[in-house]
Automatic annotation (TrEMBL):
Matching PROSITE patterns: DNAJ_2
Region (Disordered): 20-51, 194-241
Gene3D superfamilies: DnaJ domain
Lineage, opening ranks: Eukaryota, Amoebozoa, Discosea, Longamoebia, Centramoebida
J domain location: 65-131
Pfam family, one: DnaJ
Transmembrane segments: 167-188
Designated name of the protein: DnaJ domain containing protein
Compositionally biased tracts (Low complexity): 226-241
Signal peptide: none
Keywords: Membrane, Transmembrane, Transmembrane helix
UniProt xrefs under CDD domains: DnaJ
Length: 241
């Protein structure tokens, strides 16, 4: 219809199309509302199953806090614990429907358990340490969704960086081992050649007496003729004359 109208009517129809497109884009679930949907997804954070389970366990433990059961402060002494047990226990036992109300009986049992644990020093120290760790875990889990999502990404990047660092360190270790192995092999080869040269020199000295003892002269035995010539002639006696 707008194609057959004047230019003014065309401009009016164009504005109408723009307004209609903007209205459709503003509606949730429309194709033009991708940016709005993305922002809504960023604002909405759903805990992973393991984090949700951890939060539920921690909150359950927080509800069963022995100090909260007795209604006392964490730094209460033994007298304060006994006084709180007597007051709360008497209030529960004096209820009109105590004998028929299972919840009141369960509360009284929790009071007795809390009193027994907190009056025993070793058990109280153990419970205090566990309580501190639970509160610290709750404080860390109760974070901003965007911060939590960023922390999850940071953990993933950190694990990747740690793995890369370990691989790099292992590669450096292998390289150093190769260098030391080469040095050891080269040293052994040089030592072996030195021993071989020493053994050859020792054999040469043992096979040549003149070289082994050059300062001693070998005696020469004279021939028989020379021995006869040097024989002493006896002096003639008077009888021979």
């Amino acid at each position: 219809m707008c194609a057959t109208t004047t230019s003014l009517t065309s401009r009016t129809c164009g504005r109408a199309h723009v307004r209609r497109f903007a209205a459709e884009a503003a509606r949730p679930g429309s194709k033009g509302s991708n940016t709005t949907k993305k922002e809504e997804d960023e604002e909405e954070w759903v805990d992973p199953p393991h984090i949700a389970e951890a939060k539920q366990r921690l909150r359950t433990f927080e509800k069963e806090d022995l100090y909260a059961v007795l209604g006392v402060a964490p730094d209460v002494d033994s007298e304060g614990i006994i006084t709180a047990y007597n007051e709360r226990g008497a209030a529960l036992a004096s209820a009109p429907d105590f004998s028929t109300n299972a919840e009141l009986k369960a509360q009284l049992q929790r009071l007795k358990h809390a009193t027994e644990v907190l009056l025993d020093p070793p058990q109280r120290l153990e419970f205090d340490a566990q309580r501190r760790s639970v509160h610290e875990a709750l404080r860390r889990l109760e974070v901003d969704p965007k911060w939590a999502r960023g922390k999850v990404r940071m953990v993933t990047v950190g694990r990747t960086f740690l793995f890369t660092k370990q691989v790099w360190a292992f590669g450096v270790f292998l390289a150093m081992m190769g260098v030391f192995t080469y040095i050891a092999i080269d040293f052994a080869r040089r030592k072996e050649e030195q021993l071989k040269r020493h053994d050859r020199a020792t054999v040469t000295r043992k096979g040549s007496p003149t070289q082994e003892q050059p300062h001693r002269r070998t005696p020469v035995t004279p021939p028989p003729a020379a021995a006869a010539a040097t024989t002493t002639i006896p002096t003639p006696t008077e009888k021979d004359a």
